[in-house]
Design brief:
The complex is a heterodimer of chains A (about 280) and B (about 200). Chain A is an all-alpha fold and about 280 residues long. Chain A has 13 helices and no strands. The chains are: A mainly alpha (about 280), B alpha/beta (about 200).
């Protein structure tokens, strides 16, 4: 009697384990296989890309990539992308960090509403906002400028900056600040001398994350810029009419920096999602 | 000279009256122990003296000067916290010297004072370490040393020994008494432990 129960339990555990492993494999494949194909096709010659059956091994033909390196406008677009992403990074930290400090240190009326509102900025689909934004930008002269686009991207990035830094701020005991105050600090110097060094890694992480958000964003970039296109908007515009192998290469160029950045800050993204495993 | 006078101090958190008309005079260089059950308002009183909390009404005087409207840094006090509050990103040396650096004292003076109090608290060999590499008792010593280095008029201690194990607590208690008597500061010590 007890034996069968034990065997049953062991069986259930074993099947649970199989299910677990196969789900993990499936999810990883879901993400990794397209990226792998992207890489293979980028590093293949045009003939291989268009032929059938497909190979699974890259042949390290750099033709497609070198084409992009010499493509007119590519460098300007790249420069714009970096410029916009850089501005987004700085602005989202300058706006996000003080907001988080207030949220984690002060009790004020409407605090939870405020927190909700920050997240709600993500609830409006960008296509809905794009037209009024474009009109407003043209009126104020912000259209087709890196700064105008960075403003939009900052709006997108701030909720994430707040989410990431909030968990880090809350982890810093208020006593550290109080100790600093009794040791001769004002609120501001206590912040710069004690709090800032402690949350610097988290700030860096959310800065990089803001950079990635801006780097990857294409809709606002395509609508709000004409001459000063960012890399995503530029490639979207041009790849539409390009041959297949160049589409792959263009996609690859866009994916790789974002992947590297995300990989660099993965520890903090886990913290944001409440996964304790570091 | 640092006599502490507390005049008619009251503190309310919303509808809850935490402190009700407290009057207390602590003589210069006295070692005053506030003893009472958890939640009876001892810490709140201490925090009002430190300036981390504002009293709903009443006055606080230190050394003949009214200080309840000043910010913590201008009150001539130093505080030792229950959880030590040793800065994790600084070495023990920089922790102890933190307040002195804020006063912009010359390097030589900072070093002299840090080494003196480190000697008093027997932590000379730990000066290069970070808080993460210290035991609870050592952190406690750093916290006290940091307060002493300021050479304050008044030292406020909020259950400084409650996070230590029993044996260490007894040892530290005896030592603290000696060090404080020697430093000639007025001290207020908050605890719920009868033995202290």
């Amino acid at each position: 009697m007890t034996d069968t129960v034990l065997v049953d339990a062991a069986n259930t555990r074993k099947w649970g384990r199989y299910l677990y492993i196969s789900s993990v494999v499936l999810l990883c494949a879901w993400v990794l296989v397209p990226i792998y194909f992207l890489m293979v096709n980028t590093l293949s010659s045009p003939e291989t890309v268009n032929s059938f059956p497909k190979t699974l091994v890259p042949e390290f033909d750099l033709g497609s990539l070198t084409f992009f390196a010499g493509f007119a406008g590519m460098l300007t677009a790249l420069k714009n992308s970096v410029l916009v992403a850089g501005m987004t990074m700085v602005m989202s930290i300058l706006i996000g960090a003080p907001a988080v400090y207030a949220l984690s240190r002060f009790e004020f009326r409407g605090k939870s509403t405020f927190r909700l509102l920050i997240l709600l900025t993500r609830a409006f689909p960008l296509p809905l906002l794009a037209l009024p934004l474009a009109v407003m930008f043209i009126r104020t002269g912000l259209d087709d400028t890196a700064f105008g686009l960075a403003l939009v991207h900052t709006t997108l990035a701030v909720p994430f900056a707040v989410l990431i830094t909030f968990s880090l701020f809350s982890g810093i005991p208020i006593e550290l600040e109080e100790a600093a105050w009794t040791l001769g600090c004002t609120r501001l110097t206590a912040f710069t001398m004690v709090v800032l060094p402690l949350i610097m890694p988290g700030i860096t992480a959310s800065a990089i994350f803001a950079f990635v958000i801006s780097w990857n964003e294409v809709f606002a970039a395509a609508v709000l810029t004409i001459e000063n296109r960012t890399l995503t908007a530029f490639l979207l515009q041009n790849l539409d009419t390009s041959p297949l192998h160049l589409k792959f290469a263009g996609g690859f160029i866009l994916v790789v920096p974002a992947l590297i950045f995300i990989f660099a800050v993965r520890k903090y993204l886990f913290a944001m999602w409440g996964i304790a495993n570091r | 000279m640092a006599e502490i006078q507390i005049k008619n101090v009251a503190k309310a958190f919303g509808a809850y009256q935490a402190l009700n008309n407290i009057n207390l005079t602590i003589a210069d260089q006295e070692f005053m122990v506030l003893l009472g059950a958890s939640g009876c308002g001892k810490s709140t009183l201490l925090r009002i003296i430190a300036g981390l909390e504002t009293a709903t009404s009443g006055e606080v005087w230190i050394g003949g000067k009214r200080i309840d409207h000043l910010s913590p840094k201008d009150r001539g006090i130093a505080m030792v916290f229950q959880n030590y509050a040793v800065f994790p990103h600084l070495t023990v040396f920089e922790n102890i010297g933190f307040g002195l650096r804020m006063q912009k004292l010359p390097n030589a003076e900072v070093t002299r004072r840090v080494e003196r109090v480190a000697g008093l608290m027997h932590i000379e060999m730990l000066l290069k370490r970070y808080s993460g590499e210290l035991s609870g008792g050592q952190r406690q010593r750093v916290a006290v040393a940091r307060a002493l280095a300021m050479e304050p008029d008044v030292i406020l201690m909020d259950e400084p020994l409650s996070n230590l194990d029993a044996l260490l607590r007894m040892e530290m208690r005896a030592e603290l008494k000696g060090v404080l008597a020697e430093s000639k500061t007025t001290a207020i010590y908050v605890t719920h432990d009868q033995v202290k």
